[in-house]
Amino acid sequence: MQKWVPSSLISRLSLPFSSRYPSTHSQGSSSSSSSSSSPCSYLRSSRRSCCTSKMRSSTPSPKSPKFVSIEGGDIHSRSKPDGFRFRLVSYNILAQAYVKSSLFPHSPSPSLKWKARSRAILTVLKNLEADILCLQELDEYNSFYKNSIESSGYSSIYIQRSGQKRDGCGIFYKLQCAELLLEERIEYNDLVKSIQHESNSSVSEQNDMQQSESGSIESTTTTGPSSKSTLGDLNDPQVRLKRDCVGIMAAFKLRDSSHHIVIVANTHIYWDPALADVKLAQAKYLLSRLAEFRTLVSEKFDCTPSVIVAGDFNSTPGDKVYQYLVSGNPSSASEVECLDEIPIPLCSLYGSTRGEPPFTNCTPDFTDTLDYIFFSPSDSIKPVSLLELPEPKSPDVDGGLPNYYHPSDHLPIGAVFEISTGTE
């Protein structure tokens, strides 16, 4: 869920059935009343059952996307892996707290109901058979998703958004595939602390200067009334940076023969295109924290961990956030503007293989790519297959999401990664 805020089976209908209705005739005619009422009851019940059956059968089931081999992969490597393989999926599941029919008037009303939509999401997640799940806009974590997903052999870690927000980011991992070693949480509101001293000093100097010139303090930049009323005074950097966004990262030891360690980060960057500078600041903070975490893991476990970063970045491939994240990759250097020295070189999973998908978010008002999986290229890890996404004209996305086929306004993305034999 982002700027165009906001899936599923029609609720089962109860079918009361009685083989005998109370007679409206006298006791003397009970025999005839019984014989006349029972067939009617049966017919009425049959009609109900037939109607309900048609309604159920006409409700589409959630789509189960497939993993397809990356172009250029040879048949031998696909049939006989060179190393340990694991499947990772990233999915903004659309927090139920943001699901309102007024925000998704294009969506079938039954597909937005919590009971139907939550079941559809679980169906999608189950069919993906991921070893590691990175979920964004994850609400109802303790009350529903934690137990529902962990019952299929997963364990999980979770961070809820700051302030009064009810959703957050979670990583679910198959216990038979990976062991959790370390985890750290990322609060992007910490950016406020980093500029607090500098901001206080500059604001004080500016105020003194403005007071000496005009005797009053004025804002030199005008913001719309909606910005001030809903987002606070965006001229104040401490207010501007406080967007209550979060991320979470963890080091996992894979249960393969080499016990290779993989760092997985999951995040949800702020949505508003008017605050592009805030989104870029969050992306930079993410990678700085990730670099520190990688150093910690490397020293603590005497290893060279692989790094995977997944999430909803609320940025299209042409935005500065995307450009920054891939600017450290030599193969992308000629295609993107180098904004800053990047602490960890990354390449986009889809972008570096088959090209970014046409869209990962789909509503009538906006359709584009916002979700990504990045990884730090090395000899120890490589993607061998990708999760397939629908084409723009595919019937299952016609009219926008969510719908019966897709329970979120976003689509899941994912890959199968292979760890080379002999890596630490």
UniProtKB/TrEMBL annotation:
UniProt feature, compositional bias: Polar residues: 199-211
Protein's gene: CCR44
Superkingdom assignment: Eukaryota
Protein name, UniProt field: Carbon catabolite repressor protein 4 4
GO molecular function: 3'-5'-RNA exonuclease activity
A Pfam family per the record: Exo_endo_phos
Low complexity bias: start-end ranges: 23-59, 212-230
Domain Endonuclease/exonuclease/phosphatase stretches: 89-410
Region (Disordered): 17-74, 199-235
Gene3D superfamilies from the UniProt entry: Endonuclease/exonuclease/phosphatase
Native species: Turnera subulata
Alphabetical list of InterPro entries matching this protein: CCR4/nocturin_mRNA_transcr, Endo/exonu/phosph_ase_sf, Endo/exonuclease/phosphatase
